Amino acid sequence: MALHEAKKQGATYCDIRINRYRDQYCGYRLPPPRGGSGTDKVPFAGDSQSFGFGVRAIAKGQWGFAASPDVNEAEIARITREAAVAVRRIHHRKGRPSSTTLCRSIRGLEAAA
């Protein structure tokens, strides 16, 4: 569905990635010093999940991206159109930098950090 919608919007490339992430974490306190009266403890533990998808599209040599946590047919079509709109915004922006300029800018920021 996403590929068909992207083609209708004029994209020459499109991919969709559906992701489910699960994060588990816990904290642990070290035993008390010798002679102490405390006990080992697990002060916190957690478990979280996230689910969603992202669409990347290329049109006229420019990338567009959009994502959503709601995975259903209508939302996939809407988000694919949003990715295509992002491409058009970038393409129509006056004085847009080339990808080489963007890479140089990013490398410059890394060097300054």
Helical residue percent band = 25-40%
Quaternary structure classification? single chain
Biggest sheet architecture: 3 strands, antiparallel
Shape: elongated
Any idea how many domains? 1
Radius of gyration: 23 Å
Count of helical segments? 3
E-strand count: 3
Strand content of the residues, in percent?
A: 35-45%
Please provide a brief summary of the model:
This protein has about 110 residues and is of the alpha+beta class.
Task: Give a written overview of the molecule.
This protein is of the alpha+beta class and about 110 residues long. It has one domain (about 1-110). It is built from three helices and three strands. The chain has helices spanning about 1-10, 75-90, 100-110, and strands spanning about 15-30, 40-60, 60-70. Strands 1-2-3 form a three-stranded antiparallel β-sheet. A hairpin with a 2-residue loop joins strand 2 and strand 3 (about 60-70). It is elongated, with a radius of gyration of 23 Å. Residues about 100-113 have low confidence and may be disordered.
